[in-house]
Amino acid sequence: MGYHCVVCVKQVPDTKGITGEAMRDDGTVNRAALPAIFNPEDLNALETALAIRDGHGGTVTVVTMGLPKASDVLRESLFRGADRAVLVTDRRAAGSDTLATSYILACAVRRLEADIVLCGRQAIDGDTAQVGPQLAEKLSFTLVTYLEQLLELRGRTLRARRNLGHGWEIVETQLPVLATVLDTANTPRPPAARRVMKFKKARCRSEVEQAVGRELAAAGDEEKAAEAARRCGALAERGLLIEQWNLDDVGADLAWCGFKGSPTKVHRVQSIVLAGGAYREYPASDPGVAQLVRELIEDHTIG
Amino acid sequence: MIDVNRRGEVWVFAEQEGGALAEVSLELLGKGRELADTLGVPLGAVLLTAADGETGAARLGQYGADKVYLVEHDLLRHYQTAPYARAVCELVSAWSPQVVLYGATALGRDLAPTVASALKCGLTADCTDLQIGDHTPPGSKELQKNLLLQIRPAFGGSIIATIVNYDRWPQMATVREGVMVMPQPDGRRRAMLVRHAAAFDGFRPPLAVLESERRAKKVNLKAARVIVAGGAGVGDKASFRLIWELANCLGGAVGASRAAIDLGFVDKDHQVGQTGTTVRPALYIACGISGAVQHRAGMEESAKILAINTDPSAPIFGVAHYGIVGDLRVVIPKLIRAVRSGAKAEQLGEPLAPPAAEAGGARG
Residue B95 domain-assigned? Predict the structure, then answer.
């Protein structure tokens, strides 16, 4: 018995940390300067999966789509208890909007055994909350958005409480299910020290190749390839090679991937300029505050 | 997937909350009317309801719809993703609208992506503005005329992106509550009713709702004339009492930044910002709020903004009309005293010299 859970996670720029250092002189945000973090609600999705495994047995597989650097969030998942980690990475996936992303993820999830797919409700970079529902539709899994509490899992029946913001509901459905998880659902467990020791050396193939490229800069391509293959083999033997799939590996039809597979296109991007507000400053003294209040009353803003 | 159809209608999904039309849907009819008029096409509203349901179709007409596409079925009594998505997909496939708009509510953000995935069309989330305009795809000389420009904040609100969707239609977007202006209803307007019998034969809903409760929002930030909002800078829950006191004394409502909610100072209903409520009161007083872009996105349209913060370089001052650099624990009690004696302002003592500083762009 037990359930196979697949958790879809994303590495995102920490938009909460938009402070001085990430600001350019012209007042716009330098996104490259933002630290990359584990999307917060994806940690709640991971915790939900780990709790299911704790209670019922089964497996937890974490999948992310992104650049090789996104392996950071896979390592983090391994630290916290995931059994298996898969990176879907491919230059041809660049420019994917939510529709193309959900298509690619669906192709990947179909290659895994999944009774339950868990996603964070939304990612903090785009805040769209679209990939979860779109993935459910593509997989023909029953969609349960805004999961706040998994009440019961018995056989193939799942009962959960959804928080709708203006109320809640308790739903019951049959697996397979895709749920999007809220930050209020649980407190993610911290990384386990022993697992950190073990998995901090875990790497995906592209990361190994990048390291070899740096370290053996003078070597020929063949030598580099041989060294990368040797290192990947050594990592795999110790269970430290993060699986890396490209679009061919997941059997994706390229017509539905990347820029070409994305119906939404960016027409224009404007940076928000933070500087430039001309405001009247009043001293934090009794007369200063009184003067402000008087002006607000005089122009009928208050009173 | 439907073909690009330049004569297609503009549609608004008419969401219902406890049997009544959601405000955001009525707001969208106002914007939808404008878009439809620009394009010279009719405005349609999509209403899904139980067979014996109170339809609300007449109201949709009064708020601007030319047509109401009505699907009645017992499976549509309460919202559920699968039957609702199925009905919307059927309607879209049958009538090929060029634009479909949804409120960015819990329901809309569940339904719209499901429909988009099934129709393999584009969807832009949480738009704050919609316009009609032209776009030339990069690497192409072909001008795409009269597209829906879908304008939304991204990267936590640090950028505003305009999204278009020119080759796979319909053009769909969800729109945040409170950002479009509520239109004035016209009691004489009537919409044409188009009934559609959805094919639910053999369809079994995959999910059962065992229990549910809906609660009215405890605070109505959208209706407040004055909002006093606190952020992380308030320090602790006990000090947040000052925010309540100032709001009470101004007859206003209490708002909060995401940080204050996360710290447990106040309930989530009070959240102003990108993931909370968008407000535009006559006066917004931001106390101890640094002014993260996410927060500013939800309040910068306020008529007057007063920022109180110890940090003169806090970004909130960049959108403020009035600023007090100081500790809110000192400033708010002074403000309360000044407001209480406001009517007798001239008795407060010597009138103050012109404001100490005229702060400009240097602070930002």
Answer: yes
B320 neighbourhood in chain A, CB within 8 Å: 277, 279
- The pTM of the full predicted model, rounded to 2 decimals, is 0.82
Q: Which residues of B touch A152 (CB under 8 A)?
A: none
* Neighboring chain A residues of B337 at a CB cutoff of 8 Å: 286
Q: Mind listing the pLDDT tens digit of every residue in chain B (364 residues)?
A: 678 888 999 999 999 977 789 989 999 999 999 999 999 999 999 999 987 766 689 999 999 999 999 999 999 988 999 999 999 999 999 999 999 999 999 999 999 999 999 999 999 998 989 999 999 988 888 899 999 999 987 776 677 889 999 989 999 999 988 788 889 999 999 999 999 998 898 899 999 999 998 877 667 788 788 999 999 999 998 899 999 999 988 888 999 999 999 899 988 889 998 777 888 899 999 999 999 888 988 898 888 999 999 999 888 998 999 999 999 999 999 999 988 886 454 444 443 333 333 333 333 3
Partner residue facing B293 (CB), from A18, A165, A265: A18
CB distance A291–B355 less than 8 Å? yes
Closest CA to B278 of B229, B221, B215, B317: B221
Phi-psi group of A147: left, alpha or beta (phi > 0 → left; psi -120 to 50 → alpha; rest → beta) = beta
Q: Which of A21, A157, A282 is the best substitution to test chain B (most B C-beta atoms within 10 A)? A: A282
Half-sphere exposure of A134 (CA within 13 A, CB side): 26
Q: Which residues of B touch A127 (CB under 8 A)?
A: 125-126, 154, 156, 274-275
Q: Read off the CATH number of the domain in which B108 is found.
A: 3.40.50.620
Domain edge (last residue) among B195, B229, B250: B195
Q: Has residue B68 been placed in a domain?
A: yes
Fold of A3-202+239-256: Rossmann fold (3.40.50)
The shortest CB-CB distance from B156 to any of A18, A27, A172 is to A18
Please indicate whether, in this complex, the C-beta atoms of A126 and B342 are within 8 angstroms of each other: no
Domain residue ranges of chain A, discontinuous segments joined by +: 3-202+239-256
Q: Tell me the ipTM for this assembly.
A: 0.88
Interface touch B339/A293, C-beta < 8 Å = yes
Which among B34, B15, B149 is positioned nearest to B76, based on CA atoms? B15
Helix, strand or coil, per DSSP, at residue A299: coil
Contacts of A174 in chain B (CB under 8 A): 206
Q: Do A279 and B323 touch (CB under 8 A)?
A: yes
- For chain B, what is the largest distance between any 2 Cα atoms, rounded to a whole number of angstroms? 81
Number of domains composing chain B = 2
* Parent domain of B294: 221-342
Task: State whether residue A176 is helix, strand or coil.
Answer: coil
pLDDT in tens, A1-44: 799 999 999 999 887 655 556 666 665 666 677 889 999 999 99
Peptide bond into B206 cis (omega under 30): no
For residue B227, give the amino acid letter: I
Q: Residue A134: left (phi > 0), alpha (psi -120 to 50), or beta?
A: alpha
Contact B123 A291 (CB under 8 A): no
